Amino acid sequence: MKNIKLIINNESKIIKEKFFIKKELQCILNLYAKMVSNGNWKDYSFSSGTKEISFDVYQRASDKPVLRILKNFRPSYLNEKYLIKDKNGNVLKKSENLNSLINKTSWNNLRIVK
User: Fold this and answer.
1) Separation CA 64–CA 101 (nearest Å)
2) How far apart are the C-alpha atoms of 25 and 98, rounded to whole Å?
3) Edge-to-edge, what's the strand order for the sheet holding 67-72?
4) What is the pTM of this model?
5) The pLDDT of residue 61 is above 60
């Protein structure tokens, strides 16, 4: 019989690249809770691809996502690792650090065009 190893809490880079890590997800969900309590956002979802994963924000459950917070797995430039896009796919903000991106964005002044 072959030796079998059980690996718990493996912090390998492969696992991190497939989704948001815990600190990133906590930062995004804190922002989401704040915006829901203000009445600006109603629902969210996750969408993933081979190059990126995104946290999509909705005003109504049946609409397109109004904003998308993306984590780019293979950025061309260092400051394009985290992006905020509108529903048309236009990049509103970009940064190499998710915390600074969320903290520096004035979410109440961000215009959502219908």
Assistant:
1) 23
2) 10
3) 43-48, 52-58, 67-72, 82-86, 91-95
4) 0.75
5) yes
Report yes or no: 54 and 68 within 8 Å, Cβ to Cβ.
Answer: yes
In this prediction, residue 29 has a pLDDT band, given cuts at 50, 70 and 90, of: very high
Cα–Cα distance for residue pair 45/3, rounded to 1 Å: 40
Tell how strand 91-95 and strand 67-72 pair up. unpaired
**Contact 85/68 with Cβ under 8 angstroms?**
yes
pLDDT digits (tens, 9 = 90+) for 30-52: 999 998 998 888 899 999 888 89
- The tokens for 68 are 């998308």
Query: Is 3 a residue whose pLDDT tops 50?
Result: yes
